[in-house]
Amino acid sequence: MIILKDILYKVAIESIKGSTDVAVGKIEFDSRKVEKNDIFVAIRGSISDGHDYIQKAIELGAIAIVCDTFPDTFEKGISYIQVKDTNKALAFMAANYYKDPSKDLKLVGITGTNGKTTIASLLYQLFKKAGFKVGLLSTVKILVDNKEYKATHTTPDSITINHYLSEMIKEGVEYCFMEVSSHGIHQKRTEGLHFAGGVFTNLSHDHLDYHPTFAEYRDVKKSFFDNLPKTAFALSNIDDKNGAVMMQNTTAVKRTYALKSYADYRAQILENQLSGLLLKIDGNEVWVKLIGTFNAYNVLAIYGTAIELGLDSLETLRLLSELESVSGRFQYIVSKTNVTAIVDYAHTPDALENVLKTINDIRTKNEQLITVVGCGGNRDKTKRPIMASIATELSDRVVLTSDNPRNEDPDVIISEMEKGVAAQNYKKVLAITDRKQAIKTACQLAQPNDIIIIAGKGHETYQEIKGVRNDFDDMKIVKEILEQLHK
Predict the structure, then answer these.
(1) pLDDT tens-digit profile of 60-76?
(2) Alpha-carbon torsion, ordered 134, 163, 459, 177, to 10 deg
(3) Is 67 helix (H, G, I), strand (E, B) or coil?
(4) How many angstroms separate the first and last alpha carbons of the chain?
(5) What secondary structure does DSSP assign to 336-357, as a single string?
(6) What is the pTM (predicted TM-score) of this model?
(7) 31 closest CA partner among 11, 61, 68
(8) Digit-coded pLDDT (tens) for 170-189
């Protein structure tokens, strides 16, 4: 048990009804999970409003209610705390509940449209190889040193973040690398956390289903850097036109990385092959098992972060050469007949263009590039025709298919994608709604030496249809089909 007033430390309180000198259980923002003596925090979400469930929470045993608007009536023996922003309050309360764990390790947040998972995951790998105990909060998984937990969101809710940070402290973790999404920043999930550093990757077309304008999407990302402390570092990709914007108002130590511009950390691509990259970083050559210009930026961000955190530069370069690619990020297999199949999470126009341009830069053009791609349902609709346009411009054949349709009709999503196909590219395109059949068709079209790229889902092992997650693993499926077809 913990006293309510201790959990409310640093929370901007507007009014209180009842006592804050009461012992409470845990914090909940889902009324269904409330138990006796819990605190219920009423969050206004996009689907439902927690204020509508205050009475239900009390009936289940809540002893304290945190809300931005008081209910019409007050229950005897219940403490009511009115705050300006319940999302922000929840973040500070969660940090207090778990004894402010982020202050006891070095937490680095990685934000941007593309590259967050790769950078965070490979930083985890690198620091583990360097002999440290390390934590990871990513889209793919949560790692408390060697213990693995399933991830459900790019940036988890404040309670989950602080819970796992607390577990990391118990395990003696010294560094934690965390993906920071625009949703997470906007919903104040990162408030109250002590960051040792922040990394900006790039900014492109994404999440305009959530953010009304690109400017707001950019400014939300920027606010993460605005709030970094003076003791932290802010490392930004200065080749991206928004890289300088991220640095405008931060009080953190400003650091930059680039391939094309003058920067604190610079790299030159010497070789770009399907087996990896040969880079020149700070005058030293290093071979890494990652492919493409976009990964050269990721490697540079990892290198810069490691140096800012105190690692030796030559030791960091050695460790970079040992890193393995992240699940669902440019993962590839080669069949017995030399058909290469690549699975990648590319689900934004910029990411898809990067992947396809990378393949086109490497290949000889004597083989076909066959792209299988779809777009998610209940997400930004404006990118659908753009994704199809990029796929058809940069591929020899394209199979448009279903991604995670969620609550939308996948055929409607595909028809919206087809609007982006230029007249001269019509003959390149097939539309096959069933994703497994689409992958099978791509494999049947492939001849020896051809390349298949399956984009959009990457590491995901499910396909979400009408609220149900069905088992679906792109890599597993393409591997099985290629083994059957190309024996």
Answers:
(1) 999 999 999 999 999 99
(2) -40
(3) strand
(4) 63
(5) TT--EEEEE---SHHHHHHHHH
(6) 0.82
(7) 61
(8) 999 999 999 998 888 988 89
